[in-house]
């Protein structure tokens, strides 16, 4: 990625703006403590903390419970299974994990909260009670868990991720926490992310809504429900995790698969088109910027990790209060502050290297017509092509070169479709075929095989 400037550190004015935003969040959210960090291009460039007790601010090594950010960790483990060929996301859960109450739910539906199963398990509030109350994976619900038709809408389900954690256990032959430690935490050096708290860690509190008084919240091991929100972590560890979610790490998960996790999997609710969900990742559109990550809450704790992937900037915020503080708003504002104060400096324009330009590809560039609709084809680095309409609506796609001489569209309406260069009997290029759409050098070229033929212009 192009740099922001020659230094890693933020400018003093940017750092002060971030400190101010953090201080406002701690005061207005009435949080016992609050700690946050900003990551840019894979490096932590700022961190800050506030506390109700002077001189006792948390550090980037202080553990907080991170709640549903746990789900993103679990989703990474599930996508690793898919990338290894052990599962298909279209597989029903029952194919790999017998004995659940949702055997027909697909793995993709569970990852995207679109299986239609209930939001919470049976029994008393699972976040405030021991997991021993729900020891049997086959009895997470008192009745049929279906609340909506599968695949039709987003309906957040904590038990859905309990099932996914159990799926990891079944296919790896070890508890999900051990698998997490071996396959993700150790490679990424997340040494302070654990199932149960390890000192130094914050205590969780509830603050009275109408008075500045508070009480401690209970702490329990949630057992089978752990994959939905059990983990504890630090700002330091989550900053490294954020860098991984943006850039990928082939020891854990590729950047391509992480991009798949950030793709909306089901339509959001009609009243919240600025919020969607991918595969274990939340998507938030704020001030025209798409942010990806996850929020989290458990009794006594709120958390948030968000990234602007295109800009390479992430923010993490952790606090030890049950409600009242908007850590998602804080994280989004920290990202926005950095982007406003220090926008990325673009790379200078440079021509393609002469020995990297294929004359035949160069000859393909320029205007092409889909019927009478003008498009332009441009040559990019490494034989990539870029097709876009000259004006108005059309078919815009970035096209990836394949070894067989074709290209695959990676975005837009034609994503996944194949572009072929078709030639006439004399070897000259006749037309382009993009998923059966015929592009010609002239509008409705009479010499090209346009379906239905052409009548000529009069």
UniProtKB/TrEMBL annotation:
<dbReference type="GO" id="GO:0016787">
    <property type="term" value="F:hydrolase activity"/>
</dbReference>
<dbReference type="InterPro" id="IPR001466">
    <property type="entry name" value="Beta-lactam-related"/>
</dbReference>
<feature type="domain" description="Beta-lactamase-related">
    <location>
        <begin position="23"/>
        <end position="334"/>
    </location>
</feature>
<dbReference type="InterPro" id="IPR012338">
    <property type="entry name" value="Beta-lactam/transpept-like"/>
</dbReference>
<dbReference type="InterPro" id="IPR050491">
    <property type="entry name" value="AmpC-like"/>
</dbReference>
<dbReference type="Pfam" id="PF24491">
    <property type="entry name" value="DUF7586"/>
</dbReference>
<keyword id="KW-0378">Hydrolase</keyword>
<dbReference type="Pfam" id="PF00144">
    <property type="entry name" value="Beta-lactamase"/>
</dbReference>
<protein>
    <submittedName>
        <fullName>Serine hydrolase domain-containing protein</fullName>
    </submittedName>
</protein>
<feature type="domain" description="DUF7586">
    <location>
        <begin position="357"/>
        <end position="441"/>
    </location>
</feature>
<dbReference type="InterPro" id="IPR056008">
    <property type="entry name" value="DUF7586"/>
</dbReference>
